Prior knowledge:
The chain has helices at residues 2-20, 27-33, 36-39, 44-47, 77-86, 99-111, 149-159, 180-183, 186-190, 199-208, 224-227, 235-244; strands at residues 67-71, 91-96, 117-121, 134-140, 160-172, 211-222, 254-263. It is 38% helix and 22% strand. It has one domain (2-170, 201-222, 256-267): Rossmann fold. The protein contains 12 helices and 7 strands. S-adenosylmethionine is lined by residues 15, 19, 50-52, 72-75, 77-78, 96-98, 101, 123-125, 140-142, 145-146, 192.
Amino acid sequence: MNRDLMYSAEVRALVRDAYRDVPPTTAAVARKLYSEEELQLVPASAIDRSLGVANHLRYADIRPGETILDLGCGGGIDTILAARRAGPTGRVIALDFLPEMLDRTTRAAAEAGLSNIEPLEAEMEAIRCPDDSVDLVISNGVINLSARKARVLAECARVLRPGGRLCVSDLTVDQDDLPPEILTQPAAWAGCIAGALAEADFVHKLRKAGFTGVDVPHREPLSIDDCALYPLFSADVIALMRSLLPADRHHRVAVAIVVRAVVAPAQH
Ligand SMILES: C[S@@+](CC[C@H](N)C(=O)[O-])C[C@H]1O[C@@H](n2cnc3c(N)ncnc32)[C@H](O)[C@@H]1O
């Protein structure tokens, strides 16, 4: 038990340090994930810190007036797009544990002329929102960073109202498939790979947390070249991947998925 708690604290410290100092710019990630029309709706400062892994907003069916929670909002690219879709009668709670990221999201919201975005400094393992207060949880490349994923999903189920939805992008990995020399690199955890679950485990954890109607409408392989777009991976780790992974795996180090699920009313 002690070991597990220490381990969580180490992971949290590693992730905080990695994301505090992400060098500019990650606009290449944004150009990979979002259409030109979507990018035109977002200020450059948010595009410059795009660190997600897929585009779940296309599957989220956001309705005007909804209360949306963006877990690990980062520079705010999804927060801005979601806030535009929720409209002035809706709102997006932009949660991140780094004040630097929240400042960036707040500035991007002001630049976009949006007043329906509320920054929230908190950890996704302890979401400071009341029970049953959110219609939709979104998140992009964040849950895979937690050492306490069951706890994160339980928190999502708690804050969602009965019938509320979750629609997130996350990386999945078959851990047995990747060499330990890669999985044990701190940069591989910060880059969302070493902490990632297999898809079946992610789906299982969602059901255990009280979600129902789980589906995976999108899967997208992440290649070594894609990993190199994220400054979280050091050149050493990219080189390690190229040398240790068989050539037929270079195009698929991990798989980004979009997962949707609904909170069963019986859980409340
Ligand atoms: C991979 S980035 C994704 C950012 C954003 N969703 C995007 O698509 O650009 C992960 C973000 O999650 C935040 N984060 C990581 N662990 C967290 C935690 N335990 N609680 C809250 N935020 C966390 C980081 O500070 C960072 O902003």
